[in-house]
Amino acid sequence: MDLLSLRYFRAVARHQHISRAAEELRVAQPSVSRTIIRLESELGSPLFDRQGRRIRLNEHGAAFLRRVERALAELDDGRREMADAVVSGPGRVAVAAETLFQLAGVLAAFRAHRPGVRVHLFQAPVDSMRRHLRSTEVDFALASQPLAGPELCSVELARDEVLLAVPSGHPLAGQVRVTVAELADEDFVSTRTGHWQRALLERLFAREGLIPRVVCEGDEAAATPELIGAGVGIGLMPAVARRALAGRVPVAWLRLDAADCHRELTLVWRQDAYLSPAALDFRRLAMERLMPTESSAHGGTGRG
Q1: Which pLDDT tens digit goes with each residue over 244-266?
Q2: d(Cα 68, Cα 71) in Å, to the nearest integer?
Q3: pTM of the model
Q4: 118-123 and 92-97: which strand pairing?
């Protein structure tokens, strides 16, 4: 069993598809197939269930994947730590985030403090963040939904009330507060399943025994206020958006009479991960820029 076999297995397990894994690895598909068959033979157990040309990770493969990801993560951390010790280059920081909007100020401060550091920033739903952290693809995840586990540490950076945005001419526009039950027959603009806005919307409605009527859904949360202003529907938006969009989009803002109607923004990292000096600076600046002053004075609310 060699490292190449383990990396091939990890790629196939992620994609549940030989061809897509081969594309990621930039190797020929037969090479990947042979490697997986050889690995299964060496382990004495199939790692995938096969139905024609389709494959699916089975329970043995899932258990093996957890150990492979931990092993490869340790090796990748070791490689990065040695590189930082030997070569005094600017380094790299990688961050996965559900929303990129609130990172602009942090990135500006970070680039001023550490010019030359390569920052890899990309959007990802919360269900893939744990995998990105576990495989060391990213140093941090910026999550707007709970992302916890025994292998993870987190610090709460911000907590925003979530408001209901409606078109300025909507019948609800003159109200200050509204209950979830009053919204049962409304059309909603939201993000796809997996994003925090959709998760919160479905959770609030489920408490009332209701299902929201979503007429427009996508991955581009930044387009939500424009679509609401155009009259497509109503939607949930964090209070920070109200401040940012003041006077720019024709929407009215209402408070929801519902418990826990807020978005909690957390910075998450692997508990045993190697964090480069650049990554440690990024974490410090994120806490300084995004945490309320009174929280920052007490060192935040780190959780392990």
Answers
A1: 777 778 889 999 999 889 998 89
A2: 5
A3: 0.67
A4: parallel
